[in-house]
Amino acid sequence: MSSKTRDLLQNLNSTYVNLHQKFEELFWLFKMGDHSVEEAMNETEKTRDLFRSDAGNLNCVKEALTVSGLANDEVKRLEVWKNFFQLYQTPIKLTSLRDKISVLEGRVAKKFATRKEGYKDPNTGEFVPASKSKIRMIMRTNSDEAVRKACFDALEEMSLDAVGEYVELVAMRNQFARALGYDDFYAYKLRLSEGMAKNEVFDVFGEIYERTKYALADIRDLEAIKPGLRKPWNFGFMMTGSFTLEEDPYYIFDEALMGWGRSFSALGINYRGGKLQLDLLDRQGKYNNGFCHYPMIVNFNDGKRNPGAANFTCNAIYGQPGSGNLAYETLFHEAGHAADRLASEQTEVCLNTEWPPASIAWAETHSQFLDTMFSSIEWRTRYAKDKDGNPYPLELFERKARQVRILSPLALNSIMMVSEFEKRVYEEQNLTPEKVVKIAKEVSRKYTDYSEDSLWILSVPHIYDWENSAYYHSYGLAILALDQWRKYFYDKYGYIVDNPNVGDEMAKVWKLGSAKTFPEFVRMATGKNLSPKAFLEDVTMNIEKYLARARRRIERMKSILEITRPVELNADIKMVHGKEIIADNSVSFEDMARKYGEWLHKQAK
Ligand SMILES: [Zn+2]
Fold it and tell me: How many angstroms separate the CA atoms of 386 and 333, rounded?
């Protein structure tokens, strides 16, 4: 490799790692509740964005590509950067608009993080302080309908907190996307993150909606024997609320770390020497949605691989029903994201981040694949045990399935609902707060068929934030892909839980970072083009077939030995609470889990 090319590549790689790190470290502090770093965070974000959109960088790479006698490897590496910079090109005239958007988004984020959250107790009339996640949980599990309704009302009211700012954001984002030649911001984001056009996604979603909407009619029929079922504050509670309580003893928060560690270790998941930092409990001022970000991305220095680092979080409330389940879900989901990015072997660091050219749908395919492994009956009967060691009962699984299976055809509805809402909002001419509310209500009716209007969509944090807006479709695409992948694994190996072959095949695609597009990766992993077939087959399967399949899968696990060796994930792990370090795995994973469990006990209120 010529020294000039080598210097250019080294410079691009180290600069991007650096800019990425500076922003991500402050991003984490801010999201975990230290709002004093906001200005510095915005500055570092701007600097990172300017690097990506700098026409000078693109020109340098283009020029380097014109040099004669380049080796194949040099061309390949330079092409990666050329594509990368091309994705982010922003004319200089748009930078002040982009800044204005960031500032307004920052204001909205602060408003959400500092507002007084809670609901009005219907019995005493008093205001009960509670975070949004807590209110949601109460609405799903409290047996008093008046309390559930009060929680619903509180959430609806909160949904309107930033609707004015949202309208402004949509207008500015559209202005930005149109200046780049796109129809609107949705089309721009979709092209950037998945390389797809709106009709490619919404044609598939339309087909799924048509093929599954019979379930909405089934629920209307069910309401005849369950009066009030379609009221939004009753639906979750009446369908699954009692199960949340009944299942709770099998998802012990204190055991979640061990369950995660043993299960990932048995799959052979390897963080390749990376660092993980986990902040699981809810706090005032903490961002109220789980996520995984990477303060350090995998990079290479003179051929030496430097491992990455991941931070992840959720808003579990210790002692509250369902919190153990949430902790488990976060560990499987977010640690799945981390496993993917930290296993990359790509020399060009722009292929090792979660940002484009990374596909969100592909990232979610891994995290949600691991979610579905956690929620599978085979996993539960092996790992989800109550304090006396009794495994999650098959009888409970069956009873729950008989009640909630009616909902499974609608598995993609909330995702399709948010996607359609955003698509319509960005397509709407002369958007106003009234129009936003109207679209939110219409879309909610279409996908939930609740008997009352709801503005729930406006409480989805993603829509307020540049990076995460016009994004929900990716969750849907991921579910289609992972169902296809699950089918592939079951057909090939007969089982997934504790199967090192599954971990192996996952690691093989993880090595490629963002070197392929989502459709290419799906084809590579599953041997087939992406289609809704496996998903539809799964969600429309009738209850008897579904239960028979579950029994077969449990039976299959009987010949698979349980792993008893110590947990080994090849990672430095820290359990934190804000800036406080609670435990780490410097002695062992088991030691960390025990210390964290002891600390948790002290948090019970
Ligand atoms: Zn995710």
Answer: 22
Paired tokens of 169? 């954001």
C-alpha 476 to ligand 1 mean position (Å): 12
Rounded distance, CA 478 to CA 475, Å? 5
Beta bridge partners of 584: 574
> 474 CA to middle of ligand 1, Å?
10
Token code pair at residue 34: 């230290």
With DSSP H G I counted as helix, E B as strand and the rest as coil, what are the percentages for the chain, rounded to 5? 65, 10, 25
Is the pLDDT assigned to residue 415 strictly greater than 90? yes
Distance between Cα 190 and ligand 1 center (Å): 17
Whole-number Å distance, alpha carbon 337 to ligand 1 midpoint, is 7
Question: In the predicted model, what is the mean pLDDT of residues 418-426?
Answer: 98
Residue 480 Cα to ligand 1 middle (Å): 15
Alpha carbon of 367 to ligand 1 centroid (Å): 6
Question: d(Cα 140, Cα 235) in Å, to the nearest integer?
Answer: 8
Write the pLDDT tens digit of every residue in 448-499.
999 999 999 999 999 999 989 999 999 999 999 999 999 999 999 999 999 9
DSSP state at residue 181: T
Query: Domain-by-domain residue ranges, the chain?
Result: 3-89, 116-160
Q: State in Å: Cα 566 to ligand 1 middle.
A: 27
Question: What does the pLDDT look like over 16-58, one tens digit per residue?
Answer: 999 999 999 999 999 999 999 999 999 999 999 999 999 999 9
The set of long-range contacts for 480-483, using a CB threshold of 8 Å and a minimum separation of 24, is 480/204, 480/530, 480/531, 480/532, 480/534, 480/535, 481/361, 481/362, 481/365, 481/518, 481/522, 481/525, 481/526, 481/530, 482/365, 482/368, 482/369, 482/372, 483/534, 483/535, 483/538
Q: How far is the CA of 370 from the centre of ligand 1 (A)?
A: 11
Q: How many angstroms does the Cα of residue 290 sit away from the middle of ligand 1?
A: 8
> CA–CA distance from 53 to each of 13, 37, 183 (Å)?
15, 24, 20
CA of 550 to the centre of ligand 1 (A): 26
pTM more than 0.85: yes
C-alpha 333 to ligand 1 mean position (Å): 6
Give me the pLDDT at residue 287, please.
84
48 Cα–ligand 1 center, Å? 23
Are 356 and 193 spatial neighbours (Cβ–Cβ below 8 Å)?
yes
DSSP 240: I
DSSP string, 91-122: -GGGHHHHHHHHHHHHHHHHHHHHS--EEE-T
Q: Give residue 443 CA to ligand 1 midpoint distance, Å.
A: 24
Q: Quick one: pLDDT band at residue 605, thresholds 50, 70, 90?
A: low
Residue 52 neighbours by CB under 8 Å, 6+ apart: 84, 85, 87, 88
Separation of 478 CA from ligand 1 center, angstroms? 10
Checking DSSP bridges between strand 127-129 and strand 118-120, what pairing results, if any?
A: antiparallel
At 287-317, the pLDDT tens digits run: 877 899 999 999 999 889 999 999 999 888 8
Side chain identity, residue 287: Y
Distance 511 CA to ligand 1 centre (A): 19
Given pLDDT bands bounded at 50, 70 and 90, which one contains residue 1?
A: confident
At 239 the pLDDT is 86
CA of 335 to the centre of ligand 1 (A): 9
Q: How confident is the model at residue 205 (pLDDT cuts 50, 70, 90)?
A: very high
